[in-house]
Design goal:
This protein is of the alpha/beta class. The protein has a single domain (4-139), classed as Rossmann fold (3-Layer(aba) Sandwich), CATH 3.40.50. It is built from five helices and five strands. A five-stranded mixed sheet has the order 1-2-3-5-4. Strand 4 (116-122) and strand 5 (127-133) form a beta hairpin. The longest helix has 12 residues, at 3-14. This is DUF3052 family protein.
């Protein structure tokens, strides 16, 4: 394993992505973290599904920037194909990067979309991740 590969596997671990998981990617653009995408694809053993996919997914990676529109609408769209115990990761540019989203903007959108925010992590040099789940799946894990 090359030195860079261990870091890639760590990102998939941080995101809680398991081998064989079905992962959908929404909001792809030229600025996304290709290392993160490669790590996830390597972990799941297949390509990421695009936003037009209509199968049930375990994880949604939602790349989100300040000027991308209404986050509540995007989250509602992301919930549609999500499995009951699925996870949405809102991936946003870090502070000081173009397109940075204030954490308070995410915190305000989450309950409106019927989701619960569980954690925030760094997923690369330029991106942060906010983990969202359905509140019912939070309750069943207690």
């Amino acid at each position: 394993m090359a030195a860079g590969d261990a870091g890639n596997a760590d990102v998939a671990d941080k995101l809680g992505i398991e081998t064989g998981a079905v992962v959908q990617e929404i909001g792809w653009d030229e600025d996304v973290d290709d290392d993160l995408r490669a790590a996830v694809e390597e972990r799941i053993g297949s390509d990421l599904l695009d936003e037009d996919a209509d199968e049930v997914v375990d994880v949604v990676l939602l790349w989100w920037r300040e000027d991308d529109g209404d986050l509540v609408d995007a989250l509602m769209d992301a919930i549609g194909p999500l499995a009951d115990d699925g996870t949405i990761w809102v991936l946003t540019p870090k502070t000081g990067r173009p397109g940075h989203v204030e954490p308070s903007d995410i915190a305000e959108a989450v309950p409106t979309a019927g989701l619960a925010q569980t954690s925030n992590i760094s997923v690369g040099p330029d991106w942060s991740g906010t983990r969202l789940v359905s509140p019912k799946s939070v309750k069943t894990k207690r």
